[in-house]
Amino acid sequence: MAMYKHILFFVFVLVSSTAFSQYTPMTAFGYQMKRVSVDSTLHIPSFCGVPTLRNSQLKNGALAMDTCNNTLYKYTNANGWSAISGGGGSGTVTSVATGYGLTGGPITTTGTISADTATLSGKYVRISDTSGMLAPYLNGADTVSISNRINEKFNTSDTSNKWVNSVTSLNDSTIRVVKGATTTDIIIRSSATVTAATRLVTTVYNNSGSTITKGSVIYINGRHSSNLPTIALAQANTEQNSYATFALVENDILNNNSGTVIQAGNITNLNLPTANFTDGDVIYLSPTTAGGITRNKSTVLAPNHIVKIGTVTRAHPTFGSIEIKIENGWQLDELSDVSIPTVPFDSVLLQFSRVDSLWHDVSVSNVIGNRYIKPSDTSVFQRKNVAAYTFKANNTNAAANATDQVFRDPGVQTYTGTITWTGTTAPSGTTNHSYNWQRIGNQVTLNITLNYGTAGNGLTAVNMALPADCPAPKEQSGLGAANDILYFATGQMTTATNTSNSNLNRAALRVNGADTGYEVFVSTSSGAYRFVNITVQYFVN
Amino acid sequence: MGHIRQKLNIEGKESTTYTVVITDNWTEPLAQHPAMLEHPEVFEISTDPIPADCQYLQYISENN
After folding, report:
1. Residue B53: its chain A contacts at CB < 8 A?
2. Nearest residue, CB atoms, A420 vs list B6, B39, B56
3. A455: helix, coil or strand?
4. Looking at residue A75, what is its pLDDT?
């Protein structure tokens, strides 16, 4: 713009000079103004090359044209002559040259510039040069080279355990880092201290195969690939189903979905009808319904496994609530001062040992030890396995081990032995005969009772064969012939069961007349008898 | 071979007791036995089998 001002000013001066006839040649500066014509064109000093001043008039600016080089010059006192350039506007590229790797130039009118692939080959990487690119740099087989490069970058020669294999979220507060063969769980703790909480909850995953409904009691049975614990319904019927009882489901958890369970604190909006529950009821894990609860404590005791779930804080069919505080019952073998197997032997007892201050399971024999009589002490006390129909006694004149003595008491039996009456008419009618004997050691006591409905007549004696199951009597020395009396007895024949016989009655156990066995008899004065009772004591061999 | 038995119904009284009169040493006909002669209303001769649970009577004659 300045240039144009100068030009306009110059023109104005020339016009003014011409118009107003003020023509002043610049003789003092070495130029002669031969002609000034401004009617159509204005001619300024022209040179072929850089203009020069004829005289030194440094304070005055000047314009001149280099007509040879088509350049307009200006002169200033500060910079001297300089070509006038710029001025804006637009132009046309008249020539395009080429450089390294390009062909087809220069272009002055039209043409095509192309890449010289032959020249570029070996100089730059091309997209198609995959093999050439990967071989020296990214070839997978060149692990040594890669390793070396890695080592160089990381300035270490041990790359084996420097890489993290995986980082996973184990749960809400734990990150698991696997590096090489090492697994490290980093527990993230809040910087803030929790001073109060109303519930303790855990996010879990349901892969049980069906929806686990709100309020169900669950235990953790494994881990899902999402690193959430998986759950199953708890039940108090077995130790396996109950000992790990963990929490109650907050809301329905669909199969193959995650959800929240409450370990401690309040769970609301449960179906706890007042017909079945009362505020303050302590509830337990149900032994009959998987995931269920019951307030009937008697049903969860052994052989079931008691697990206290919490306390009903509101009994209501839709807004029921429970304050959860799960307390798993302890097995005897889980107590810290009891050392017994999970399934002890049968009939063992608990015995406390001051050696290790623990309760142990011990057999009865071990409980007794050497201080008391025990079943195995048969050689000393002869207490074990008392033989059939025996008792223990000492049949010596000094303290000694007891020996087996016969004892038998068959009880009352119906007498069916042979009865022989002596008289005119035997008693008859309905009979109710019985006998009873008992053996203690070598002594036998026998009682026989004959009871008839109709009395006989002229009766003086009756013989009764020794019952077949009675031990045979011992025949004392010199005795044993037919009809020999072995043992006297007491007995009577009477006319009724409630009377006695005032006559002399004789009774005894003797060898029978054929000397083939034994019999007891009663004899008395002739009478009409229907009742006989005889008791005899005798010894056996 | 018969035997003497005490009747099972004596004077209208039924009896379940089977009483056989001992005749081991009696060589005469049973009908001549004192029991038959003295108390025919009580005794009778029978050829029925003697039951195992019978009782015996050593008959004592009233004439002795």
Report:
1. 416
2. B56
3. coil
4. 82
Domain span including residue B37: 3-57
Residue A428 touches partner B, C-beta closer than 8 Å? yes
> Is the Cβ pair A420, B53 closer than 8 Å?
no
Answer whether residue B12 is part of any domain: yes
Q: Strand, coil or helix: what is B34?
A: helix
B21 in any annotated domain: yes
User: Is residue A406 classed as helix, strand or coil in its secondary structure?
Assistant: strand
Cα gap A129→A223, rounded to integer Å? 49
The SS3 assignment for A115 reads: strand
Rounded distance between C-alpha atoms, residue A203 and residue A233, angstroms:
16
> Whole-angstrom Cα distance, residue A297 to residue A281?
11
Residue A11 φ then ψ, to 5°: -65, -40
CA–CA gap between residue A354 and residue A363 (Å, rounded) = 18
8 Å CB contact between A253 and A210: no
Among candidates A424, A429, A458 on the partner chain, residue whose Cβ is nearest the Cβ of B15: A429
The pTM is what? 0.42
Contacts with A419 from chain B: Cβ below 8 Å: 55-56
Per residue in A411-469, pLDDT (tens digit) is 999 999 999 999 999 999 999 999 999 999 999 999 999 999 999 999 999 999 999 99
Average pLDDT, chain A: 85
Are B59 and A423 an interchain contact pair (Cβ–Cβ within 8 Å)?
A: yes
Q: How many domains does chain B have?
A: 1
- Phi and psi, residue A218, nearest 5°: -130, 165
Query: Domain for residue B51, yes or no?
Result: yes
**Nearest-angstrom CA–CA distance, B7 and B41:** 8
SS3 A422: strand
Give the pair of three-digit tokens for residue A130.
């995959």
CA atoms within 13 A on the CB side of A60: 11
Chain A hits for B42, CB-CB cut-off 8 Å, are: 425
Cβ contact B16–A422 (<8 Å): no
Query: Per-residue confidence at A140, pLDDT binned at 50, 70, 90?
Result: low
Is the pLDDT at A226 greater than 70? The verdict is: yes
Which of A416, A428, A458 has its CB closest to that of B19? A428
CA-nearest residue of chain B to A433?
Answer: B17
Residue A232's pLDDT band (cuts 50, 70, 90): very high
ipTM of this complex: 0.92
Report whether the peptide linkage leading into residue A106 is cis, meaning its omega lies within 30 degrees of zero.
Answer: yes
Distance from the Cα of residue A284 to its chain's centroid: 19
Q: What is the pLDDT of residue A148?
A: 66
| B41 located within any domain | yes
